[in-house]
Amino acid sequence: MKLLVCGGAGFIGSNFVRQRVEEHGDEVTVLDKLTYAGRRENLEGVPHAFVHGAIEDPAAVAEAIEGAEAVVNFAAETHVDRSIAEPDAFVKTHALGTFVLLEGARERGLRYLQVSTDEVYGSIEEGSFTEESPLEPSSPYSATKTGADLLVQSYTRTFGMETVICRGSNNYGPFQYPEKLIPLMILNAFSGDPLPVYGDGQQVRNWLYVRDFCSGIGHVLAHGEAGEVYNVGGPDECTNLEVVERIVELTGADPSLITYVEDRPGHDRRYSLGSEKVRALGWEAQVRFEQGLEETVAWYRENPGWWEPIRSGDYREYYERQYGSSLG
Ligand code: NAD
Ligand code: DAU
Fold first, then answer.
1. Is 70 found in the same domain as 186?
2. Whose CA is nearest to atom 12 of ligand 1?
3. Buried-most residue among 41, 100, 111, 164 (CB within 10 A)?
4. Mutational pocket test of ligand 2: of 93, 198, 238, the residue with most ligand atoms within 8 Å of the beta carbon
5. pLDDT tens figures, 124-148
6. What domain count does the chain have?
7. Residue 328 lies in a domain
8. CA–CA–CA angle 162, 105, 20 (5° rounding)
């Protein structure tokens, strides 16, 4: 298959491109703006064509979409804390970007898959979200992702376009930018820096190994019904504190590095995603959290050449802004 993968230089997108090229023999063009989170190195050794540009730029979309049979859209601003500090780019990429890309796919009659998130449903104390759960996003990140989902669905209802939406739970694994909980804690543990836990650390996340999310997206791309939403959730749930304590054990770090800091505003307490609908398409998560976390710690240990340049660049400024006052 010939795929246009937008945001393919980011964490999940690059894992997806690698899986599609190596395991399915797909021909892939990546369209990516290369924001702070997008890196050409993430695709090293993976044959692909590359267009440097934004999904909200019709000329870049027209160039990249040439010859594609389907479009998969990962392109997004993805960090909740950044959406609280500076929401502008979230609105632009998720609203305008999704619109321009949808138009490009509609003009050419292409199948379109939107990569979305469980955060569109908000927080759930008990039980699990289904695809029918109300949309109650809490942050500018999740609100703009929700807007994008609704626009995608309108293109099927109004224009009969073949769209599908995949909503994933919290991903982890190789190539994740170290602003997110798991890589941030792993790298801080390696260097003996404080491990900043928001609030009481009892928030629950539903962890999904990145390659399992990628295979779920592949299943939905191949077998999902037009106009439908498919949740792709991880096999395990745990509190943030449990995750950090396990990272402390795996890295041999000093447990006294765990530091409670001010909570995130509007912080969702728990995510839990029911995945029965995508299971009915034949998908199943393969990697339990215990095993995936061990592999992830090992990957960061073995790849300082990937993360050292990130940690010494702009990331430092972000880190100071986000944590400086609470970590002293
Ligand atoms: P990421 O931040 O690692 O990568 C995002 C990529 O999109 C980067 O390569 C970036 O350069 C690119 N990008 C950003 N704005 C763009 C624009 N306007 N035009 C073109 N490219 C642009 O993100 P990720 O964690 O890999 O997430 C990928 C997708 O999966 C997102 O849509 C996100 O909402 C969704 N998602 C993420 C998770 C998770 O746990 N990380 C879970 C569920 C869903
Ligand atoms: O659920 C899917 C979502 O998962 C994706 O849509 C988002 O793109 C992705 O960023 C992620 O969102 P979260 O906000 O859940 O992920 P994050 O890694 O930022 O935080 C995970 C949990 O850990 C959350 O409860 C906040 C907490 N946390 C995070 C950081 C960065 C801390 O306690 N300390 C931290 O320093």
1. no
2. 7
3. 164
4. 198
5. 999 999 999 999 999 999 999 999 9
6. 2
7. no
8. 80
